[in-house]
Design goal:
10 helices, alpha/beta, 44% helix, 8-stranded parallel sheet, globular
Length: 219
């Protein structure tokens, strides 16, 4: 299959998962994860109608997305990898959504850059549901207080929560936990699920799924 066929297969699987879960059609959006792929590899996916993309690294995204965005108005770019505070200005300038707010320093840096650049980004808090020391994200126990800090003290709106479950564990309990935390924080958006488990994530309420290899192939 070529990349367009793989994209259409993923979209079909998303629709089937929505139907199975008793959810409205298109209630789960696809974020096509294009990290490590160059602009020429991404253009056919854009040509096939995909408009939402995810990148892990600010510097890599800067090498291809300004040109792609200028070619096709209306693209939406998500930062789904860890953000360093010294990259906040570049991230706010290029991305439309940052899914990886996970500490006060980053929240304040993004808030300051949004004010400076007069850009309003949609923001998610990343939660480390598996408490993995090597993985970014705030702990589940700290999530409610951190979302409140962002809203009430720092003055930024948080749209939803994001997680990456441990690779070796059943993702279902992690998705269930994220959904429960979002409800406690009065948040309606959940970014969860990747190529291997996005159908399970949709069953647990994902409003966006991040799929890379099932569309673009192995890196």
């Amino acid at each position: 299959m070529d990349v367009t066929e793989r994209l259409n297969e993923v979209l079909s699987r998303i629709r089937n998962a929505e139907l199975y879960a008793g959810r409205a059609e298109r209630s789960a959006a696809l974020v096509a994860v294009s990290k490590t792929f160059d602009a020429d590899a991404i253009r056919p996916v854009i040509a096939a109608g995909q408009r939402i993309f995810g990148e892990n690294r600010v510097q890599e995204a800067q090498s291809k997305w300004p040109e792609l965005k200028s070619e096709t108005p209306g693209l939406e770019l998500h930062l789904i990898g860890p953000l360093q505070s010294n990259k906040a200005a570049d991230a706010v300038a290029l991305f439309d959504v940052i899914e990886t707010i996970d500490r006060e320093k980053i929240a304040r840096a993004v808030a300051e850059e949004m004010r400076k650049q007069q850009r309003i980004l949609r923001l998610y808090v990343q939660v480390n549901t598996g408490l993995e020391p090597q993985k970014a994200g705030i702990t589940p126990a700290e999530t409610e207080a951190f979302v409140a800090l962002c809203r009430d003290t720092i003055g930024i709106e948080i749209e939803g929560l994001m997680c990456i479950p441990p690779a070796e564990e059943n993702p279902g309990p992690h998705f269930a936990l994220l959904s429960k935390l979002a409800a406690r924080c009065s948040l309606g958006r959940l970014s969860m699920g990747m190529s291997g488990d996005f159908e399970t994530a949709i069953e647990f309420g994902a409003t966006s799924v991040r799929v890379g290899s099932a569309i673009f192939g192995t890196r």
